[in-house]
Amino acid sequence: MRRAAAAVLVLALGAVGVLAGSARDPGAAGTLSCWPAGERAAYAAYEAALLGSPTRDKLLEWHQLLGAEPHIAGTPGDLRTIERIEKAFKDMGLEVERHTFWALLARPVGASLEILGPEPLRLDIREQALPQDPFASHPDQTAGWNAYSGSGEITAEIVYANYGAKADFEKLRELGVEVRGRIVLCRYGGNFRGYKVKFAQEAGAAGVVIFTDPSDSGYMKGITYPEGGYSNSTCIERGSINTLPYPGDPLTPGREATENAERLDAKEIALPRIPVQPVGWAAANEILQRMSGPGVPEKWQGGLPLAYRLTGGEGLRLRLRVEQERAIIPTSNVIGMLRGASEPGKMMVIGCHHDAWGCGASDPLAGTIALMEAARAFTDRARAGKRPARTVVFAAWGAEEFGIIGSTEWVERERRRLVKDAVAYINLDMASMGPDFNASTSPSLRRVVEEAAAGVPTARAKDGMTVFQAWSRRSEDPMLAGRPRFGELGGGSDHIGFVCHAGIASTSLGGGGSKGNSYHSTYDTLPWYWKVVGEDYEPALMVSRMTLAVSGRMASAPLLPLDPARYGLETRRQLIDITKRAAEAGVIAAPAMGREVAPELARLEGAALQFEAMARDVDRRLLAAVEAGAISGERLARVNALLIEADRAWLSEEGLPGRPWFKNLYAASDEDSGYAPWTLPLFRRAIEHKDRAALDAAEETYLGVFERLREIVTKIGAEVG
Known about the structure:
- The protein has helices spanning 3-16, 40-52, 56-66, 76-92, 166-174, 193-202, 214-217, 281-288, 365-383, 405-421, 446-453, 467-474, 495-501, 526-532, 538-556, 566-585, 602-627, 633-648, 681-688, 692-720; strands spanning 95-116, 121-122, 146-147, 152-156, 158-160, 183-187, 207-211, 239-240, 276-279, 317-338, 343-353, 390-397, 422-427, 436-441, 506-512, 667-669, 677-679.
- It is of the alpha/beta class.
- Strands 1, 2, 4, 10, 11, 12, 13, 14 and 15 form a nine-stranded mixed sheet that branches.
- α2 packs antiparallel against α15 and α16 runs antiparallel to α17 (602-627).
């Protein structure tokens, strides 16, 4: 047995003897609390075999297979990537479906950016070739572009708008800077690039140029590529600028984008109308150094060695030309299924997208390789006669980069079945980017992630330290001493369909901390990854093992490792944050000294805490009954169904105001940034719109959710007896 596998087995077996009821004690994380005592050793051995399966050499092999060429969704390279994954899944023995969908995608046709004036200058919109990285010069690499840009040619003056956030455009209005008819220059960061364009277009801008600033991702962070890992002067961030109020195919919201699906009129949907061009900071520097208007607010100054200006002055004009075509183009998800031994109708889903803006060594393949190794580990065990109880689905999603399309189309096709039968979803997008583990997770999955983390070695550990120990020490939860701090699920990746549309408990697992950035550039290649993240693949091994530990437990535990009680604590945590935000926005008065939650939200705080106390009591009795083998068969099946139902209690079929596709009242993305989470989104929207009546209505809605949760936990308690 390899050393890593042996270490995992020792950790897993060592956890078996800890009392199940102490699973909330951080010192006891790692217990197999959802198994009868007599079955724990057998599962610990199975888990150790799973975790011992991933290897550095196989991860490298997957990386070289999938990262050899650019594979933008809908291109020949994309099709070859789909075929490679499909073959690999079939070779593993999985039941494989190539789920093809037909989505409105964009294609670059041509573009140019020029400075006009006494000395005209054509600006580079491609990265420079590097002899150290032949992948970056692959003939299928594209010039910089933003998918769904409007097409056209314009000549106009310049306005600098910082990050292009809503507050930045409000500041320009306050300063009396005219945006209408001008080209907006703004830097990447702070919000989703599409909202930069949306706010510029709403302000009347004629076009947008977005650049990577060295203060955000360049020489002010560290040595640049190829000597180091940070963005060099020609590094360009590509990406979609779609800000429709739903993910997936722009023309088929809420339904699968089949070949003959009923579609919206492309002319009637709110895709960008103005031309947009991304550039590196070398091109931006040529523009900024010629600007002669008033200086910017202090916080708007970037990292180039010059004073940033609000306007270019009448003598400085840009000519921007962008030509793109939009067309309905087929591409595919690759779905591999390992049917469960005893509960094949229940599903544990693991996913990561396969499409990229170039070779995609980091985004997405740093996660896709962990998906492939997880599939290999499960199928190796299945060939040895050890199948999980529930079905495990391995999904390589298509067209994520254009707007979370492939996973959304699959969820929309399968929603009824997923709502009923999916136990959890794990997302691995860009997951293995460094040794520092992190997770953004639905409340009900946090305990199982913690417990799994106590049985997995942290990346590059020299002292036997586990993921749980390293994570807790690096990022301790301020409300739970000795426990790690979780992130909240927002937007930007394939978990959205599962958690926001179908109410499925989800987690995004990953590792970070490496010194560099190649995001969406032609430099997102294997040589960049090996230089910056490392050739040892230790972060990918850690993420693969965490994926296996969490999914293995969710797929095989007799009692589903879902913890609805955690919704009580996390709701109170969010109410503290909502109180601060609402007071700052003037929606409510600041609470009295010593109070963390406003009186206006006190009823919901009380309901959340009462639910947590009640649910914890039932949880203790349930775990004790499972440990003793006193609950099984039909009773246990009913309990598991109720645990799934607790996550679905947050669903509203009407959806969020203005965004009916988002149906989860606990988790959504920020409607003005795209990436950031809106936890308890009815409150967050009320604050954003300064609507006190909506805030009060939100509390009533959430009180109703906790009433449903109490009813569900009461039924669980009745099954326990």
